[in-house]
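Meet my pick.
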Amino acid sequence: MRGARYLDSHVATAQIDRMIATRSIPARDAAIPALHPALQALLCRPIPAVMGVLNITPDSFSDGGQFLAPEQALARAKRLLAAGADIIDVGAESTRPYGGASPVTDDEEISRLKPILRDVVKLGIPVSIDSMKAKVVAFALDAGAAIANDVWGLQRDPDMARLVAARHVPVIVMHNRDMADPAIDIIKDMSDFFARSLDIAAKAGIAEANIVLDPGIGFGKTAEQSMTALARLDHFKSFGLPILVGASRKRFIATVGPAEPEERLGGSIAAHLIAAQRGAAIIRAHDVAETVQALRLAAAIEDKR
């Protein structure tokens, strides 16, 4: 595993509100590439940034089909913004972690994005493109998206790393597996996966400053492994890179108490608060207003210690 990098340096940030505890932002020097502005804006906040989910898909596990029509998708994006989202993650192919998603071609994915993506970008906050296909990511970046979100961590499409490097954009590298294996040491598997992804990124010329790690809660993991990944999230601080966590409405929550996806708000918030305590810099959520409120309150309480 790689040693700690400059992203672990601590520089005080400005307070948004005196009752909210500050977070540190990466220190930089002339020898290290500066963060991409979109990523820097997310990492300099006093609490974890919140990424709102916009699925333009018929089969996403939680809200599939709800935002397929362009007017519905744009209305959803506006609600996410009003609720306090710092970034909107747009996906046009389901990457549901439990199987059953219908793969689509590059062209179909792009056709779903065309009527809506530029309008979402015009709302004025960073947009990430949730896709494992380099052709789709290229289209989205041309339309104004600022961040690539690859659920296969640069290890599925051989063109992805080259594209990200050429465009000089941040990339979210998520851990994934084709199937869960309860017998493996999931923390070691994740660490090895991230090490491979970082090697791919380095060889392609991606600036390490623009890489975010995502443990891929629910993806290729049993419920126990997802909870272990959250419980030991601070293990991945040794990579010296920002961490994003998306536990929102995931199935592992229902193993504690049976609940349908839309009934998992309490579990989602609990998981995200723990992730924030263990160092997550970005939280990906369906329920943005409630997540923002929970993060702000937790930080305000901590500020009183």
In short: The longest helix spans residues 186-204. The chain is about 35% helix and 10% strand.
